[in-house]
Amino acid sequence: MLIVECWSALRTKRQAACPLCEVHYSAVMDDYDAADNTMNYWVAAEREGTTPEGFERVTVSAAKWAVFEVRGPMPDAMVETWKRIFSKWFPSNPYEQAEGPTLEVYPDPDPFGPDAYSEIWIPLK
């Protein structure tokens, strides 16, 4: 499934699963396979308690994280920040990406707005 289709499916399920309606969303990415350019990608929401029917639970373990601010409308601002992280930040720092998922966090209710704020979280070793 394409990432755009994941977000579209969430909008449909969100209407039927209102317990998730009042939270911000995240994308959780893991298990990247460079050979065929694929990864696991979840559209996620933080939640305590039971998991609503039709949804799955993903647990993100504690880690040391680099958190990067993303300012501007999606998807362009997110894509540009990812490029800067791997072309400038990692090469100029002693850190390496650790095993585990990376996160895109979207606390802004309108991630497509001109002043949107979001974050990229990368686990470090």
TrEMBL record:
Residues 1-125 form the AraC effector-binding domain. It comes from Paenibacillus sabuli. It comes from the Bacteria. PANTHER family: TRANSCRIPTIONAL ACTIVATOR, PUTATIVE-RELATED, TRANSCRIPTIONAL REGULATOR PROTEIN YOBU-RELATED. This is AraC family transcriptional regulator. Gene3D superfamilies: Regulatory factor, effector binding domain. Transmembrane segments: none annotated. InterPro entries: AraC_E-bd, Cass2, Reg_factor_effector_dom_sf, YobU-like_regulator.
